[in-house]
# Entry
Amino acid sequence: MPASDLASISAYWDSSADTFDDEADHGLRAPQVSAAWARRLAEWLPGSPADVLDLGCGTGSLTLLMARQRHRPTGVDLSPRMIELARGKLSSAGFDVPLIVGDASRPPVAGGESFDAVLVRHLVWTLPAPEEALARWLKLLRPNGRLVLVEGRWQTSAAGDAYTTGAPRLPWFGGVTAARLIEALEPMADVLHTEHLTDPMLWGRPIQDERYVVIARPTTSAGPGS
# Structure
């Protein structure tokens, strides 16, 4: 993504960072919401300890849950302020976790570095080329690794809308349906599991829109089971 586009997007999320955790599913401040996400992560991720790349990690709430589950997470977010808050959150809990400012669609990891899982939550709608990002993320997985996509479709908007001045147009603005995301994955991955996430405990309230998880494995490294 051009540097000018990245700058406007980074500034947008910087301005949102200090109130980001006010949303129940962002800050996970309510014990029941935190516990609901912890249970789902335990189901979706490999057995701990695993190396997990948390893309679009925001203020690090899921990163912290993974660290508490004895995983070895690495967080990436485009917003320096989000990463600053994530560092404080992880450090206060006693964890020293790599947290990197960078473009999650092109993860700034060392050449040849790979992971047991790549976790992405509510990120693909912000990407101008989401299918290219999916392909890059799958290539970061070790054999039998898994891509865990927690996504949704929150609003109906014209394809190509942008969410902040100076940002590129976005094909999945407002979110993407599970069916469309699976369609994008199928040429490059085997879909292992998909499930709609209707439990109000995950969101701190009942929801009316589409929210789901899709777990996939690169076709070339697919094996029996999940």
